[in-house]
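PROTEIN DATA CARD
Card holder: Probable membrane transporter protein
Chain length: 244
Origin: Cytobacillus praedii
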Amino acid sequence: MEFLLIFFIGICATTVGTLAGGGGLISLPAMLLMGIPVHSAIGANKVSNTVSSFSSFFHLYKNGDISLKESIWIIPVSVGGGISGGFIASRISEDHMYIVAIILLVFAFITSFIGKKDFAGDASLKMNKFSIPGLYGIGMYDGLFGPGQGTLMLYLFGYLQISYIRAVGLVRLATFSSCFGAAITYIAADKIIWSFTCALLFGSVAGAQIGVRIAKKLKPKFVKPILRIVTIALIVQIVVNNVL
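Structure generated from the sequence above:
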């Protein structure tokens, strides 16, 4: 029964995470409430996100929604940012990481109202003074703390006038890149409970496929309201966790 529950948690979390980021809002607290040790729960999320993120990216790539020429450079930038974030995280306090997370999410929330871009553009992703620092910085944040990484990336791609469905594919590729290294770390540290992890993984792969299909039908004008709801939920979760 536990494995079936985790499977459905994976479906729900990754469907939401694919559409607007923040899937960890669902999966991580749910697994902790089930009594799964925190490191094993985080490790399960990293392993499942690695596979599910790649599966959704590959689906969009196979269907011609995104190209490797446009997206492949995201991998080293995101990995480099994640490594930098992990290095910094080992040298600053947890309280400071919470503050960084809240500031970034509040900033993204406010700018979503100021900016007029709504994912209706069709620009190509190029290496420039906005995309490289933006992706590197969010990758650093992912290595530093994590919650909201996908949401922040969607805000960035919206600003860069990337169409929504391509933005989803680019976020999933970046998530695969940042989670891959973390997953290897947790496996090497023997923190993985494979029965729970596999249940979450199968649910996450199913959720990723559901998410990309919904994303193709979602009108751009609905994307920012969904992002704002997820952003508020992330801020509330971080504040509550810090207070408690």
